[in-house]
Structure formats: C-alpha cells, structure tokens
C-alpha cells in the first residue's frame, strides 16, 4: 500500500524549528521524507543516513547528527520521529480499514447476486446433459484477512511478552510475508514455542520481537520446532 501524500503541518513545523540553520532544515526534511516513503524509521548506518540527507561536508554531517539527536529517537531497528511515526500508523490504519470495508462490501454484493438473478429470470433454464462444472479452486488469503491475522499475531505476542509492539508497517511487513508461506496456526505456534524456550533467558528474551521471530531465514527453523499440546493449552 502506498500513501498518497506527506502530511506536513507547516505551523507546527515552523514553531518547533525556528532555531535551525538552513543545513539542519534540509537534513530534517530529507529524513522525514525518507521515513514517510519507507513507512518506517531512518536507518542506523551513518553512511546510509549521509546518503539520504545528501550531506557532502563535515558541517552538513554534523547538522544531520544534531537533527537526529533533537528530533528522533534511536531504537534497535532505526531512528524514529514520533510525529512522523504517528502519521504513518494513522495512514496505514486508514488503508487497512478501507481494505476491510471494501472486502465486506464486495461480499455483501456477491451474496445478493443469486437472488437478483432468480427474481429476474422469466423461465427456468433448459436441462443440461453436460457434466457438472469442476469445484472452484482454493484461493489464497485475501490482503484484508492477512492484515487482520498479522495484527492478531502482534496482539498475541504482546500478551505473552508483556510488551507493546504496534501494528506499524515495519512490524507487519515480516509477519505478512510469513503468512504468505505458512498458516496462522503455524505462526502462532512459533510465538508459543519461542516464548517457552526463551522466557527465562534474559538475553534471548529480548529477541521475542516481530523482526526476529518472523525473519525469513530463522522462521523456517523455528516453525519445525512444534510446541507440545500442553504448551499450546497454556498459551490459550
């Protein structure tokens, strides 16, 4: 899903940035645009940050550093601007709501089609001696259903770990990718088993997060370590 435009509240921006130099304004805007386009944080790697800001001198690199320290928060997966992250999450939530509403509207219309066709039919169709049509092929999970399942998995992970992961594009991306390859129950089973194995290990407990659990390479290993029925019952 792509966002149509970047919301820039000019009054708020000017109020909070009157003290910035021209170089600092440039670095700030380039970082905000990057976060919006990527729907997530700016990278931690300094060379990537320099490239994003197009910083070509020592003074420009230092200006970039001051902007990061003042207006961004450094997390394990990148630099976050609080206001921008809220706008990203808000736009993403609107997109999901529209997708779900569209799917429900389509389903409602589809249910009405048979009755309308029958009501308008003037006479029954002639008998057919041809063989019955083959059963419909199974389809993949719709985008709206995948989003719903991904959000449920984040909520379940928060329930088990006591943490507060949000359903942002960054956290949803690896989960949605795994839901294309595995079932919801398999994904949930990975959370249960990793929780059982890591919950008492202070070091490993930190890895109970979406980007680690649903990493493409690691997930293939985790999914084979199936939780026992007792562990699944305890998780419910």
- Major sheet summary line: 2 strands, antiparallel
Number of helices: 12
Which structural category do the helix and sheet elements fall into?
Answer: mainly alpha
Q: What oligomerization state is this entry in?
A: single chain
Query: What percent strand?
Result: under 5%
Helix content: 55-70%
Order of helices and strands: HHHHEEHHHHHHHH
- The neighbouring-strand order within the major sheet is 1-2
Give the strand tally: 2
Shape call: globular
Count of domain modules: 2
Mean pLDDT: 83
* Low-pLDDT sequence parts: 136-140
Distance between the amino and carboxyl termini: 33 Å
User: What Rg do the Cα atoms give?
Assistant: 24 Å
Describe the structure.
The protein is mostly helical and 236 residues long. It has 2 domains: 10-84, Orthogonal Bundle (Arc Repressor Mutant, subunit A); 144-235, no CATH class. It has 12 helices and 2 strands; from the N terminus they run ααααββαααααααα. It has helices spanning 10-17, 22-38, 46-53, 58-71, 82-120, 143-161, 169-179, 184-198, 202-205, 210-213, 216-222, 229-235; strands at residues 73-75, 78-80. It has a two-stranded antiparallel sheet with strand order 1-2. The longest helix has 39 residues, at 82-120. Residues 136-140 have low confidence and may be disordered.
